[in-house]
Design a protein that fits this description.
Layout (H helix, E strand, L loop, with lengths): L2 H9 L4 H4 L29 E9 L11 H10 L1 E9 H14 L5 E7 L1 H9 L7 H7 L1 H9 L1 H7 L9 E5 L4 H5 L3 E4 H7 L7 H13 L14 E2 L3 H8 L14 E3 L6 E3 L4 H15 L12 H9 L5 E3 L3 H4 L5 E3 L19 E9 L6 H9 L4 H9 L6 E3 L5 E3 L1 H4 L7 H5 L12 E3 L11 H10 L15 H27 L7 H11 L1 H17 L1
Helix pairs in contact: 7-8, 12-13, 13-21, 21-23
């Protein structure tokens, strides 16, 4: 018998048969202390469980998760007290890697964006515990989801056969979530300029030029910013499809499947990719892109949006993060060669390692049951909507909506600013199941749904989930692969801002070959072949 299952029988103090139905919709009022603990059937006789989480924090989150409605309520329901050690997403990777390498890690990595390579490596080393048996015995909601969507199990299972994490999984039918952050354009400014919504890169370019040349906000200054986003990668990812690249979706940013040959190709050395960067570089050199785009933080970007300075941007929704309702999402632009692919599509299992339990957790069975609740309908409703009458209302048909204090705040706060007082899902990467019925974030607002409808006819059809690698392959991907990824990112910025000339392109390609590009692609191909065979 698995060691964790043995510990479960000692700690949980109830028959295993009683656990199977423990997470059915709860018959008690949410948050009542009299019924606290029923969710876990009294997980330990000694009292409440205390756990420590390493947790990623978005700029849109509040400063302390424990003070929000969702976690106050759930701690009462479960008798599990969680301390969230918050780490800004900007420094998350560095601090997570330091914690794992140095052994100073907590009970759980929650919303910490742990990658497949880390899961495989630290899973084999025993830092992350295998969840296979725990899922079978204590996670009925998640197990049901894996049965419905077999690609989840396929994407989570490491080459050693173990599952070390639970994911953030988007309902594949909720396409607005899969495109996530559309390319938004200011339709009020389009009208003032007498322009139609751009359908091609050339029309988009002319719009940006007009924004720069016109005092569209009427303040007597030329302070309008034609385009800004939280980094130039956001624009690159949108423009790849305009040149017919990114055919496998956002899960594979450096590699896709060539539609002509059906074989893998390395995107970032292709002539068409050079053209993508040349187009964006032209925008930057002409002052059509925010000069702060390489360093800007999310809060600063949102402030520019709130001030009415932006002509276009890439964010979840300007209405919720900037309080601006005048933006409309663009569909797939047509490129200079006639390509019109909407490549900015996420893998439904958008974060593989959204929840991972470490070997320091003394209660892994209770912990996974604590998490499994959020893969149920009741858990999703609590996590995304909160408490009826306080944060949401429902009509006779069961349709849910946030209260007016959230959607039309009397103090002028944006929806996300108000939501941060109650919830912690803002900013993404949270573990759980996201479905339109319960998720009422910015991606389900009418303008986001409309953007998704525009994109859908041109969207990537065969989205590849993330691949998992053997230990030997992981070594290549974490050394050669990491160097290649870092180098391409560095050179993208240099080509765009002009510190590197496009005359150096051949040298850039040759450097990648010297760094081991052939070996990198060989490993990628082997993982792809396994993926296709499963």
């Amino acid at each position: 018998m698995d060691q964790h299952v043995k510990r479960a029988e000692r700690c949980i103090q109830v028959p295993l048969t009683a656990l199977a139905g423990a997470l059915k919709p709860m018959p008690f009022a949410v948050g009542t202390r009299r019924d606290a603990g029923h969710l876990f059937k009294g997980p330990v006789e000694r009292g409440d469980i205390e756990l420590t989480f390493f947790t990623g924090k978005s700029p849109t989150n509040g400063s302390k998760f424990e003070d929000t409605l969702i976690w106050k309520t759930y701690s009462q329901m479960s008798n599990v007290q969680v301390k969230f050690n918050l780490v800004p997403f900007e420094t998350l990777t560095e601090k997570r890697n330091l914690a794992l390498a140095g052994g100073d890690y907590p009970d759980v990595f929650y919303s910490a964006r742990v990658g497949s390579a880390e899961l495989a490596r630290y899973g084999q080393e025993g830092v992350f515990i295998p969840l296979n048996d725990l899922i079978d015995k204590y996670a009925p909601n998640f197990k049901k989801l894996m049965d419905k969507y077999p690609d989840i199990r396929k994407g989570l299972t490491m080459p050693d056969g173990n599952i070390y994490s639970l994911p953030s999984f988007y309902d594949p039918d909720l396409f607005s979530m899969l495109i996530g952050t559309p390319l938004w354009i200011n339709q009020d400014w389009l009208k003032k300029l007498g322009m139609e919504e751009p359908q091609t890169t050339e029309e988009f370019y002319k719009y940006l030029q007009a924004v720069k040349a016109t005092d569209l906000n009427g303040n007597g200054k030329h302070d309008e910013i034609p385009f800004s986003a939280g980094g130039v990668t956001a624009l690159i990812d949108h423009m790849k499809g305009v040149w017919g690249l990114g055919t496998s979706g956002l899960g594979h940013k450096l590699v896709d499947v060539d539609p002509g040959t059906g074989k893998l190709r390395f995107i970032k050395t292709l002539p068409k990719y050079k053209e993508v960067l040349q187009f964006i570089s032209k925008l930057y050199k002409e002052g059509l892109i925010d000069p702060e785009i390489f360093t800007i933080e999310g809060s600063a970007l949102n402030a520019k949006g709130q001030a009415g300075l932006l002509g276009s941007t890439v964010v979840p929704n300007p209405e919720t993060v900037m309080g601006r309702k005048e933006f409309t999402g663009l569909g797939a632009l047509k490129g200079p060669h006639g390509d019109q692919l909407y490549a900015h599509v996420k893998v439904p299992m958008v974060h593989v390692g959204a929840f991972a339990i470490t070997n320091k957790d003394p209660y892994p069975e209770a912990t996974i049951r604590w998490m499994d609740y959020f893969y149920s309908d009741e858990g999703a409703k609590l996590y995304f909507m909160g408490k009826e009458g306080e944060t949401y209302t429902s009509d006779a048909s069961g349709n849910l909506k946030y209260v007016d204090e959230i959607t039309n705040n009397p103090d002028g706060l944006t929806q996300d600013q108000v939501l941060a007082k109650y919830f912690t899902w803002l900013g993404g990467s949270y573990p759980g199941f996201v479905t339109e019925k319960y998720f009422k974030g910015s991606e389900t607002l009418p303008n986001s749904m409309a953007a998704a409808e525009k994109a859908k006819p041109y969207a990537v059809k065969n989205i590849l989930y993330n691949f998992n690698y053997t230990p030997e392959e992981t070594e290549v991907m974490s050394s050669i692969g990491k160097d290649i990824e870092d180098y391409t990112t560095e050179m993208e910025a240099k080509f765009i801002n002009g510190s590197a000339s496009f005359d150096q392109w051949d040298g850039y390609v040759n450097n990648l070959k010297k760094m081991g590009l052939d070996q990198y692609m060989s490993v990628y191909q082997a993982a792809y072949d396994r993926y296709q065979a499963e």
